[in-house]
Structures are given as C-alpha cells and as structure tokens.
C-alpha cells in the first residue's frame, strides 16, 4: 500500500476495513467491540473511511432505525489487495521452513488464532 492514496491508513482503519469485509451488515457497536474502544472512537474511524469512499452506511430494511456498514467496491478492492499481500508474505516466510517446521508453525498459528478468538469472546461477555 506504500505510495498509494491509501498509504495514510492507520491500524484502526485497516482493522475496521477487515472487520467490515468479514462482517458486512455489522452495526457501529460491533465495530466498537472489535476495536475494544468507545462508540465515539469507532464512529470517528468509520466517518474517516466513509469520507475516503471505502465504507458506506445503509439502513436496514428490517428496522429502518438501524444503520449498517459495508465496504464500497473500492473498499473491497483494497481489502482484496491487502489479503493478497498478506498471503504472499506468509508464503515467503513458509519457504524458509522445511515440511516438519511448516506443520509445527501452522499448528501453533491455529492455536494462537483459537485462543485469540476465545479471549475476544470472553471480553465481549464482560
């Protein structure tokens, strides 16, 4: 993303883009939970992404009071580019490992992902 119009996106911006991509139709409270931040902070991040044309708000047909979020085509294109770059980076790292080391690495990464999900669920319950 260096030397692109989006090189000035910060970690919160990228986190929200990834979250909205995975959770299209989410509401602002979901974004605040994902960022572990107050609703006002999540709103500030989403407002910035709306101004950049990466995220859009829309009203739910089931409940017109509910405002939902989704990526714009430009936002989805950016998320696809990020995913492709991450995948390429992971593949380059794995090239340095032999088959047994890759299996151990993948197993450990799966455990980390599982524990992280568990911690997030626990944090949301509190």
Describe the 3D structure.
- The protein is built from five helices and three strands.
- It is mainly alpha-helical.
- It folds into two domains: 1-95, Arc Repressor Mutant, subunit A, CATH 1.10.10.10; 96-126.
- It has a three-stranded antiparallel β-sheet.
- The longest helix has 27 residues, at 99-125.
Estimated radius of gyration: 17 Å
The main sheet comes to: 3 strands, antiparallel
**CATH superfamily annotation of the largest domain:** Winged helix-like DNA-binding domain superfamily/Winged helix DNA-binding domain
Order of helices and strands: HEHHEEHH
Detail the poorly predicted runs. none
What structural class results from the helix and strand content? mainly alpha
* Helix coverage percent: 55-70%
How many structural domains?
Answer: 2
CATH topology of the largest domain: Arc Repressor Mutant, subunit A
pLDDT average, as an integer?
89
Shape type: globular
DSSP summary: helix tally? 5
Strand content: 5-15%
Span between N and C termini? Answer: 36 Å
Q: Would you count the extended β strands for me? A: 3
What's the CATH C level of the largest domain? Mainly Alpha
Identify the strand order in the major beta sheet: 1-3-2
Tell me what the CATH architecture of the largest domain is.
Answer: Orthogonal Bundle
């Amino acid at each position: 993303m260096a030397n692109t119009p989006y090189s000035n996106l910060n970690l919160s911006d990228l986190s929200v883009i990834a979250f909205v991509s995975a959770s299209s139709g989410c509401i602002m409270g979901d974004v605040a939970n994902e960022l572990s931040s107050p609703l006002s902070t999540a709103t500030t991040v989403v407002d910035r992404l709306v101004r950049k044309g990466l995220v859009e708000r829309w009203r739910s047909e089931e409940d017109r009071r509910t405002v939902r979020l989704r990526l714009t085509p430009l936002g989805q294109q950016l998320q696809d580019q990020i995913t492709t770059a991450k995948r390429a980076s992971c593949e380059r790292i794995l090239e340095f490992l032999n088959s047994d080391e890759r299996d151990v690495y993948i197993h450990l990464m799966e455990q980390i992902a599982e524990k992280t999900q568990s911690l997030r669920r626990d944090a949301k319950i509190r």
